[in-house]
Structure formats: structure tokens, C-alpha cells
Amino acid sequence: QVQVVESGGGLVQPGGSLRLSCAASGNIFSIYYMGWYRQAPGKQRELVATIISSGTTNYADSVKGRFTISRSNAKNTVYLQMNSLKPEDTAVYYCNMRGIDDRTRFDSWGQGTQVTVSS
User: Fold this and answer.
1) What Cα–Cα distance (Å) separates residue 84 from each residue in 21, 46, 76, 114?
2) Which of 53, 88, 92, 108 has the CA that lies 20 to 30 A from 30?
3) How many CB atoms within 10 Å of residue 41?
4) If you count DSSP H runs as helices and E runs as strands, how many of each does the chain have, helices first?
5) Residues 96-117: tens digit of each pLDDT
6) Which residues, 6+ apart, have CB-to-CB distance to 61 below 8 Å?
7) CA angle 9-114-109, nearest 5°?
């Protein structure tokens, strides 16, 4: 079973930066999709950014120009560099990875990491 663990959340002032990491472990053959999602209190979970095996990225309009998603295939890790953070970026951030392990396809979520943007 593939496990996914996020790290790097915390408290930051408006205008500040944070870098989230998410690492997958297990008998992984390949990961073709990596994504970051977030859920603010009282709101539905929303897509933040994705990156596929070709390197193609996609961003929510609300984070374009401020957030950058990247990946390390060797480390089975995805990163989210968040700059110019705003209070409305406050949420629990979740990592999602989809790929193939030694048995079949997997679709794994992390437990989430809290990001709070406040002065």
C-alpha cells in the first residue's frame, strides 16, 4: 500500500512564503499524477495545483503567479512553493498521488498539513 505524507505547513504572515513537501512510500512502480488540494473551514476541498508525468502543470486561478508545483521522480516527492501568501490561502493542504505499484493502480491521499496566513 502506498502511503503519502505531507510536511512544511505552519503559520506565516501575509506576503510570506512556505514550501510544502509530500513524499510517497511503498512499492511504487510509477507516479503519473501529483496534486495539491486545500480545504478551508466551512468550504469544500478545492484543487490548488497538479503536475503529471510529462511535467505539465495546472493551477487554480487564485494561485497562478504565486504558487509553483514541482516534483522529484527519484524521490517520489512533490513540492508546492507558495509565495505572496494571503489570508485566504489559509487551509489544510492535502497531497494526492496516483500511479502504479507492484499490484495495481493506486490513488493515495495524505493526512493534510495546516497552513495559516495571519498577522
Assistant:
1) 18, 19, 27, 17
2) 92
3) 7
4) 0, 11
5) 999 999 879 999 999 999 999 9
6) none
7) 95
